[in-house]
Amino acid sequence: MERTLDMASVDEIREKQQRVRELMDNEGLDALALSTTANFAWFTCGGGNYVGIATEIGVATAVITRDAKYIVCDNIEAPRIADEEVVDQGFEFKTSFWYEEKKDEIIREIAGGGALGSDTPMAQAKNVAAAVDACRHSLTSDEIERYKHLGQDTGECLALACREAKPGMTEHEIASELSRNILARGITPVVTLIAADDRISKYRHPIPTDNKVDRCVMLVSCARKWGLIVSATRLVHFGPLSPELRVKHEAVARVDAAFIAGTKPGANVGDIFNRAVDTYA
Fold this sequence. Notes:
Layout: H1 10-27, E1 31-36, H2 37-43, E2 57-65, E3 69-74, H3 78-85, E4 92-96, H4 103-111, E5 116-118, E6 126-127, H5 129-136, H6 141-164, H7 171-184, E7 188-196, H8 198-202, E8 216-225, E9 228-237, H9 243-262, H10 269-280
Parallel strand pairs: 1-5, 3-4, 5-6
Antiparallel strand pairs: 1-2, 2-3, 7-8, 8-9
C-alpha cells in the first residue's frame, strides 16, 4: 500500500523518539508526558488528541519512557485515537473509566517512581515545556512535505473564497465561504479574520462582523492539519486600485519578498528579520 501524508514513516517515528530520549537524558528524566495538542501531534506524526479545537491541552497524553511509549486517556477516547490517530506507531494504551479522572495517577505509575517530566503543570513532575518546544524547531522531511501540501491547500481555499466574495456580502458570509472550503479538505480553521474596506487598516486582527463589503476585503486564515499551521492572507479589490493603495501594496510585497529571499538553510533568523526591517526604510 502506498504511504500517504496521513501515515507516519518508520524514519519519522524513529527520529522523534530519538529527539525525545535525548531530551530525557539532558533533563535527567525517566519518563516524559506530552499533553498539549501541539506536542502530541508532533510526537505522533500528525495525530490529534483534542475534541474541542479551542483547547491547548488534549484529552490524551503520550508518555515516553526509556524503552516504551504509551497513550493515557479515558475509555471513551481510546478507541478512536487507537484507530485513527496513532495507527501502527507502537503505543500501548493505558486507560481508565471517564468518571475516574485518573490520568495523572496512571502517568506517575508509568514513571514508576522515577523522574517525570511534563509539557504541562503536573504534580511531582518537572515542567520541560521549553525543552520540548526546541525538539520541534527542526522539521523532518515528512513534515516539510506535509507543510507544502497544507500550504497549497490553504492557498487554494483562500482563492476559492476570494472568487466568491462580492460587494454587499457581509464579513460573516465571506468567513463562512472560507471555512467551508477549508473544512471540506479536512483542515481545521483555527483563526479566521475578515475585514472589509476601512476595517483593514483600522484593526490588526479583524474578527468577522456584519460589516458589508464595498470596494475591498481582506481574508486571513490560520489553517491546521497534522499539528502544523499555515497562516495566509489574501486581498480582493473591486474596481481599479487607487495610486495610494497600489504604493502600499507594492511596499508590503517588497517586505514579504525580503523575508522569502532571506529564508535559506543555515540562515540566522535574526539576520532574516533585520533584512526585512531594512526593506521598510
